Amino acid sequence: MIYLKSDREIEKMRASAQLVSHTLAEVSKYIEPGVETGKLDVIAEDFIKKHNARPAFKGYGPADNPFPGTLCISVNEEVVHGIPGKRVLKEGDIVSVDCGVELDGYFGDHAYTFAVGECDDETWHLLKTTLASLYKGIEEAKHGKRIGDIGYAVQSHCEAEGFGVVRDLVGHGLGRSLHEDPSVPNYGKKGRGERLRSGMTLAIEPMINMGTWKVKTLNDGWTIITADNKYSAHFEHDVVIREGEADILSTFDYIAELSKNPDNVILYG
Ligand code: MG
Ligand code: MG
Questions:
Q1: What's 172's DSSP letter?
Q2: Superfamily of domain 7-264
Q3: pTM (2 decimals)?
Q4: Which of 78-92, 120-134, 145-159, 250-264 has the lowest mean pLDDT?
């Protein structure tokens, strides 16, 4: 069941997405070699609560193994759903920070992959290609197009560079729930799948691997890693389908303003 949102609901979702954008920027001030991922999680949780919202990931999932963090922090070969903790970031790492909040009954959920200090050229290329593929997908996200048009745009852009497109995890609708219909795969065929309609709200989130697209789940029940242990990148935006260009509710601009390492913040275009 796909829920189309009213303009009033969309403004609530924009407020949630913007709080996530500000939270990622707050966290970016502390991303540098030597920081523990658990410290980043505490910063995000405090920031979200200070803004009268709820960390949406904390406690999410099965009752016998709920996700313990405010952020999903996924380093290097970790694709998504990494658990914050004692791991210390080091020069040359890449770290995906994924954040979800519930504010006034509506959810925001997006992610950015940071370079920690300097990273090598191949890693840099992975980050730039993944970010670009997100925007290629968003270009297709408009009324009258189909879900497969988004996936095709992401997949073709990344596979042309020799990268692997994760199949096991996908983007999604969001709104009054963190995950709503439809699923938004990062692969697909043009003109196939659910037709996009004005008022649909989607989280589009390419997860792109340097090597194979195949992934595994660690024994913690959450952390997804690449099957070949090569690096993976992940960027996510929340968008509203419109007749013309999609309305992007989230932004990475605040990261560019506040980051500890502004030279290594990539923005598209
Ligand atoms: Mg998501
Ligand atoms: Mg997310």
A1: E
A2: Creatinase/methionine aminopeptidase superfamily (3.90.230.10)
A3: 0.97
A4: 250-264
